[in-house]
Amino acid sequence: MSADRSMATLxxxxxxxxxxxxxSRWTQIxxxxxxxxxxxxxxxxxxxxxxxxxxxxxxxxxxxxxxxxLLVPLTSLVMGVLALTPERxxxxxxxxxxxxxxxxxxxxxxxxxxxxxxxxxxxxxAAGLVIFARTxxxxxxGFASVALGSAVLTAVFLAIASLVSVGQLGRRRxxxxxxxxxxxFALALLFDVAVLGAASLLRSGHASRLLITSVLVNPIDAVRxxxxxxxEGTGAFGAGSLALxxxxxxxxxxAVLIGLSLSGWIAIPTWAAVRRLERLDIA
Length: 283
Description:
Order of helices and strands: HHHHHHHHHHH
Number of strands: 0
Shape: globular
Radius of gyration: 20 Å
């Protein structure tokens, strides 16, 4: 199949999936909930301190980081698995067509990515407009960095969802969803606790190396570190992020390693999913 035809197939699948995902009630609910939570976060800081009104962009961005780190990976995994595990009959018909399987998979991922990022953009945009109207533009760059980190996490966890989903047709969808939830729990909740527990048992040098590695191998920790660097510089970090900064000698080196780590988290699972799909006997 020619490269032009493969690209045309990819873009057609992307457009179709984006339309389906955008019309999905789940995507619309996610967008509304995300916007509502963003506005709640913007106002919660002053309410908890006895004040009133909205936080500025910088404070809202710092408060939004944890929400993004928990909600976006979970949503991307679940929606990715649901979209990429069709019923057996539908999969047989689709992959019996004279089209390249990788183009179908990559196009579906691209369409899902566009729909989820658009939903997030509506949420960030609604909160951003209200904050700008009330407090001005101070800290807007940090707020934008959180939105960018959210998009990167979407790409990472859609790639993971593709690897989990390939070959899981029909009733196996439940198993794929269970695996996705275990991955989310391990990376979002369990990983940091396990690493800090292990580091507390090691000598200083070994503990630092473990903490540095933990920031780079976990995409959620990598996005957290990058977002905090963009929002507050080196002012607010955990042990792993501080160890990474010491190891790299500053922000630039840390940013390069984080970028390489996140690029790998997008590319490697997607490549593995494509290879697995090419070898899969669906008939």
